[in-house]
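pasting for ref
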Amino acid sequence: MGKYKESPKYNILSMRVTNEQKELLNEMKRHTHKSTSTLMSEAMHLYFSHAVTGAN
């Protein structure tokens, strides 16, 4: 039987990036030991909190 997930995620998003953006993402993954999905999720949360507070 498959592994049970408490909060499964069924939505898949994709995006196009430049070679430079891809390399930056790969470097961030190496330094943080986080997955692409985790980094992008954290980036969305940071962007949202920045947009809501109106911080510069």
